[in-house]
Amino acid sequence: MIATTGFAQIFTSTTQPEKTYKYRVYLHDKADCGYSVENPEAFLSQKAIERRKKFNLAVDEHDLPVSANYIAAIQKTGARVCNVSKWNNTAVVEVKKEKTMDKVSRLAFVDSVKLVYSSPKSLTLPSVRDNVTDRTEKREDFYGAGKRQIELINGQKLHEAGFKGEGMTIAVIDGGFHNADKIAGLASVNILGTKNFVRPDMDTYLDGSHGMMVLSCIGANVPNVLVGTAPGASFYLLQSEDGATEFPVEEDNWCAAVEFADSLGVDVITSSLGYNTFDDVSLNHTHATLDGVTAINSRSASLAASRGLMVLNSAGNSGNKPWRKIGTPADGKDMLAVGAVRADGYATSFTSQGFAADGRVKPDAMAMGQSCRAFDTDGSITHVDGTSFSCPILCGAVTCLMQAFPDKRPELIIDAIHRAGDRYDNPDEIYGYGIPDMWKAYEILKNQ
Question: What domains lie within the chain, and their CATH numbers?
């Protein structure tokens, strides 16, 4: 689920796909994986190893690959393997007949299987790119239309100190990046690569616009028009969200994207996605499962910091809906769940509420998430609402803070941001620790 209250419409076409099902397969162990934690060079990328060494983090069993022999045996049943998660020791498989899963379930190394997707009768997908006009207006302030959204968290002070995200890499995990490669206002953004975990053969620059707008809140660098919160950073654009349906398989896609980001050596992940209810209501989460370890994507979010990855995720937009609470993976541990305030610092009506089921304070922080400014698919500046935008706005500032303190582990950065919140002494279910003063967070880390 995309954590925004609305975004640009894109021309689509509708098809009737062949009926298929996807299942999450829980594997019993990694005994047959063929690798050892004593030899990480055999299965981890050099960049992933370097990040762990920088923070003095141990390589553990979660890093070991899923057994190739297990995957081969699953495929022999007729199931097609879509993706795997080594951190969770799971695989997602696609079948045309549900009975095929009986064969998979009987494999000795399979603990259990869970339905995570059932194809709909019809599927509506983007088909045509929006026309780009690049009509924008200049303002007096350097940050242009983005002035208030960076000043609310005092992020401009980090820029003034020389920290604008240079040398840092951010993975944006989202639902599509329509026209991000064509909009003049994003031409200066250093995009290192893209990957689609939903439909690998589909162009991420054709699919939904949401990820492009998120990217613009961080990476835009057009003085007097729109300057984001980390205009010097580099980016990978990873699509895990399926805008056409809502099923738990998107949580598996998210996990695969996070592990891919780890292999790329990224520093920060920003994700404006969240999950609580699905097209098949029998698969819905409950408030009791918001504990940071039950949902598969929440487990991955909770593990990321121990791999040296900083993760920020939108809290969600259910504050004025029956669900009310945060979604997954915002309930994760050792990561930042970001809620939304208005320009005056008061909470929006829609921002999702905490706490986590185990009593941890959620949200972790707040940033501007109403009447934010971002690029639209035609290259103009538009108004956008949602924790989808408070999250990347804060992400950019967090990235600049990490640039200033490259040897500080994610947990220490998170603690400083908590302590810099305007409600740190009295956190609540709506604001969490409140709006962080990012320069105060800088001073906290400097004085440690």
Answer: 19-123 (3.30.70), 136-446 (3.40.50.200)
